[in-house]
């Protein structure tokens, strides 16, 4: 049975929705109508439709938060949907997935129902007020009949007190009933069924698995490229140099020594490259001392100045910290190699509820795009695989910013 406090809260919220709900839905329909009407003007129409899609998400999110705050259903935090694909095609796919997101539409449907119930609550509140006035009408009224509130119904003065009492009691009982009904409807509409929860969990798992596979492919390609372009030719050169030294060791010992020394230098350089490559796969300090220390070491090795601002009261899971670390490392590498940046700012926060948020911004030339198999593609897929979201903004002329949010318990 619903508690009196929750019923009272539901009634107050319904009354508010009865007033502001029609305004909200008028704006939504207006945005949709303008978007469809201006669709031939591709830029404006598409922009308005994108705004409509995310306005639906925002309303669904707010409605879920309102219902969860009122009834404590324990709803999972609703996040925008993403395709995890790069480029404009990926954006359109993300937009479509968001447009058909059932969780958002359930929230909108519940808001529409609550708005209708709220309008009735407002009407009944007026009726209750009119009934109260009617109770005291015989004390000051003149004539033989009075009008009931906002209606055209005339009530004989002798019947004013019982009619006023009955209308007040009826209106108050109906308002309480609507408050209870609101909770029943909200549970049926907003709270997903067991099947829907399993389907959503399967969809999330599928997206994360696809992101993990793509991230692994990108990482493998990077390792292959680094080995092929760096360590492999250097080791081939070492082998050739040692072969020449072997040939000269009897006839020209000094030249052989010089070749051995050259091979030794090249070997040390190869070892350094292998260490850097291993550090790119995993960094020990991340496990030993945490993300703050690992990022400090990363910033110290950067070829451009890095302003590091990390505020974390605790630690997240290994996968979460690794995803954040490699995202920041890749963003710093891109800033130095491609963006021609002269400095970077890295901000990391541990936000409630249990989300690791990081942002990297450089002062480079911008214009970065997500290319399948590229570094930015690797960032997106690594973050998606960890159950998070990534946003990359790189207008022509700069600056480029990479922002990620990753659940701490991924």
Describe the structure in your own words.
This protein is of the alpha+beta class. The chain is built from 12 helices and 7 strands. It has a 5-stranded mixed beta sheet, covered by helices on one side. A hairpin with a 6-residue loop joins strand 1 (145-147) and strand 2. Helix 1 crosses helix 6. The mean pLDDT is 78.
Short description:
The chain has 410 residues and is an alpha+beta fold. Helix content is 68%, strand content 10%.
| Count of strand segments | 7
What overall geometry do the principal axes of the alpha carbons give? Answer: elongated
| Approximate strand percentage | 5-15%
Rounded Rg: 33 Å
Strand order of the largest sheet: 3-4-5-7-6
